[in-house]
């Protein structure tokens, strides 16, 4: 994501989140009428005052102009609708075409300020929110953005959009148009304090444009948006260029000053990352985020790097890195037993991989909320223990007595002791070795599964893992598919094991339902990739969403983290607290990088 990491989500498939009646006076909340405010923080007060000129991490004098080209490694795109579960949307659509009611800042845990909405009103109990829309807010065709468009957007996204929206906005009970530029949302659960902010993240779509169109069948017809760019030229599946709108209605707002500076932004599609890397070094595109430790250590060399024509930087960030790992699909019988899942984790040798594949660049991940105060550590105590205590009879005793740490190797006996531990766990789960194969003692079914990949470069991580498990008689196959097929299989939960990233923000909330709540386990297209369905997790997710303040949020998230780790739903991988970027030196960036890290939309081109 570029604008905010909140709800990031399936980070690779979503880049943004995405409400008519006669005018009436607003009903009065039990908490009394609310005063208009320019911004809102999840907890406490927002950092920036009313009428602020720009965010601290942008250059307000950044010149407009120039073109930046980027690469996408994928098998193309077939849609300009990023909010529908069908098709594969072109990169950048939601970020550049659609404005939202509020804009989040990148240097606070979770605060948002008026964009389409000039102000918002919400009482102390946050039982409703009213958005007052800016008079100058316009769609690209010149039509004003009205309360009708807001209500329409809510309705279309939660009924015909990606299932994510239905879960994310599940606690909205009513939408009321109070006048042309005033719309109210009432909530069924007044403990869900995040709702005013996440409704502010909703992309606003033009009701008049979609009036005679089918929402899921827009294909490659450029839609009407309201954001800083419109679609310019494109070649189906291969390239798309966004053109900056010179008279963009929001260009002088504090939330937009110093941002979206390039005249044109182009994404070219590559099917192979090695080819893309060579294309970058040859000047085919201008900016690259490097995900491969090997590439970072060995490929960014040569005259252009030596003379500064291409700049290579590892820029520190302070955002939660979330969880990346081998994710088990517990809907499959082979992974239904947590003891089996725990055993398989002993077959992954991170220390070997970090030394031999990653040049020692990574740190092992041991939390779903890594690199933040939200991560659980040690044994539960104090308020966290109080939260977990009512669930003691439903949880493994290890939650209370053992600190979670992923298996590691000591460098002397290598993986031998780990494989012995795995064998003991598998025997305890009812498995045994017959004729060199790991089989279930009662059914005779072999322990075998498939790892689904779409990045060929990841085979070098997966194949050693496969070979380690083969020593235990476990038959692992590795299936490499193209990115489009991979996305479709993810949406259908048609896999045994995948490698997956579970991105997190510094203010977890409603998006946690999408990851782990039992209500999403059978919802095609949800991000509950592991099939988590646990009443304790459900209750902890609800508690996180309803946290009354920051301190309580931290305790509740730590408790959730601990229970998820003890469920052995993933084999944790690794993380990095720097953004590895390389770029051609005509690109300039602000002197301050926000805690959320690099955002190219704050950069500019040398005049």
For the terminal residues, how far apart are their CA atoms? 27 Å
SS content category: alpha+beta
Low-confidence stretches: 1-5, 7-30
Global shape? globular
Major beta-sheet overview: 5 strands, mixed
Helix content: 10-25%
In spatial order, strands of the major sheet run 19-18-20-14-21
Proportion of β residues? 15-25%
Number of strands: 25
Number of helices: 18
Rounded mean pLDDT is 93
Q: What's the Cα radius of gyration? A: 25 Å
Describe the structure.
- The protein is globular, with a radius of gyration of 25 Å.
- The protein contains 18 helices and 25 strands.
- With 607 residues, it is an alpha+beta fold.
- The strands form eight sheets. A five-stranded mixed sheet has the order 19-18-20-14-21. The chain has a four-stranded mixed sheet with strand order 2-11-10-9.
- Helix 11 crosses helix 18.
Topology:
Layout lengths: L38 E3 L25 E7 L19 H5 L4 E3 L6 E4 L2 E5 L6 E6 L13 H13 L3 H6 L3 E8 L2 E6 L7 H6 L6 H4 L18 E7 L3 E6 L19 E7 L2 H10 L4 E3 L3 H6 L4 H4 L3 E7 L6 E6 L9 H8 L4 H7 L6 E2 L17 H7 L9 H4 L14 H13 L2 E4 L2 E4 L7 E6 L5 H12 L4 E6 L2 H9 L5 E6 L8 H6 L18 H11 L4 H17 L3 E3 L1 E2 L2 E7 L2 E2 L15 E2 L2
Parallel strand pairs: 2-11, 18-19, 18-20
Antiparallel strand pairs: 1-4, 3-4, 5-6, 6-8, 7-8, 9-10, 10-11, 12-23, 13-23, 14-20, 14-21, 15-22, 16-17, 24-25
Helix pairs in contact: 9-13, 11-18, 17-18
């Amino acid at each position: 994501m570029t604008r905010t990491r909140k709800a990031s989500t399936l980070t690779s498939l979503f880049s943004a989140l995405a409400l008519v009646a006669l005018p009436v006076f607003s009903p009065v909340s039990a908490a009394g009428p609310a005063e208009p405010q320019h911004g809102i923080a999840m907890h406490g007060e927002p950092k920036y005052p009313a009428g602020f000129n720009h965010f601290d991490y942008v250059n307000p004098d950044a010149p407009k102009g120039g073109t930046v080209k980027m690469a996408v490694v994928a098998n193309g795109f077939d849609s300009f609708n990023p909010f529908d579960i069908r098709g594969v949307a072109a990169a950048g659509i939601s970020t550049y075409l659609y404005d939202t009611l509020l804009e989040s800042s990148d240097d606070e845990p979770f605060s948002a300020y008026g964009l389409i909405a000039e102000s918002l009103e919400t009482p102390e109990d946050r039982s409703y929110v009213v958005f007052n829309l800016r008079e100058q807010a316009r769609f690209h065709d010149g039509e004003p953005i009205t309360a009708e468009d807001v209500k329409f957007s809510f309705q279309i996204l939660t009924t015909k959009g990606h299932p994510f929206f239905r879960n994310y906005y599940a606690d909205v009970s009513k939408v009321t148009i109070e006048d042309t530029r005033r719309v109210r949302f009432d909530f069924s659960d007044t403990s869900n304090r995040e709702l005013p902010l996440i409704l502010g993240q909703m992309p606003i779509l033009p009701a008049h444009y979609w009036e005679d169109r089918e929402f899921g069948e827009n294909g490659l017809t450029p839609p009407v948006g309201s954001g800083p760019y419109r679609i310019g030229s494109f070649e189906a599946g291969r390239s798309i260029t966004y053109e900056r709108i010179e008279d963009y209605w929001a260009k002088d707002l504090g939330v937009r000053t110093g941002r979206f500076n390039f005249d044109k932004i182009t994404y070219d599609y590559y099917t192979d990352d090695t080819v893309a890397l060579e294309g970058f070094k040859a000047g085919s595109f201008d900016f690259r985020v490097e995900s491969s430790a090997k590439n970072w250590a060995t490929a960014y060399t040569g005259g252009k790097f030596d003379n500064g024509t291409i700049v290579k930087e590892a820029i520190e960030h302070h955002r939660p890195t979330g969880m990346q790992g081998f994710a088990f699909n517990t809907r499959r019988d082979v992974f239904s037993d947590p003891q089996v899942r725990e055993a398989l984790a002993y077959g992954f040798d991170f220390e070997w991989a970090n030394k031999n594949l990653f040049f020692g660049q990574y740190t092992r991940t041991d939390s779903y909320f890594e690199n933040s105060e939200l991560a659980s550590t040690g044994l539960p105590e104090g308020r966290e223990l109080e939260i977990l205590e009512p669930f003691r009879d439903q949880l493994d005793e290890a939650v209370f007595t053992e600190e979670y740490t992923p298996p590691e190797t000591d460098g002397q006996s290598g993986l031998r002791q780990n494989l012995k531990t795995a064998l003991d766990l598998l025997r305890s789960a009812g498995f045994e070795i017959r004729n060199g194969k790991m089989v279930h003692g009662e059914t005779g079914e072999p322990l075998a599964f498939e790892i689904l990949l779409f990045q060929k470069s990841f085979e070098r991580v997966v194949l050693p893992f496969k070979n380690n498990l083969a020593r235990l008689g476990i038959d692992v196959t590795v299936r490499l598919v193209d990115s489009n097929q991979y996305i479709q299989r993810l949406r259908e939960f048609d896999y045994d094991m995948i490698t997956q990233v579970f991105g997190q923000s510094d203010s977890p909330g409603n998006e946690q339902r999408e990851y782990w709540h039992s209500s999403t386990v059978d919802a095609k297209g949800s991000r509950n990739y592991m099939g988590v369905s646990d009443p304790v997790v459900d209750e902890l997710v609800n508690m996180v969403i309803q946290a009354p303040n920051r301190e309580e949020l931290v305790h509740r998230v730590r408790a959730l983290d601990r229970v998820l780790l003890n469920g052995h739903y993933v084999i944790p991988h690794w993380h990095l607290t720097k953004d590895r970027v390389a770029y051609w030196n005509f690109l300039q960036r602000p002197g301050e990088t926000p805690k959320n890290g690099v955002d190219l939309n704050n950069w500019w081109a040398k005049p």
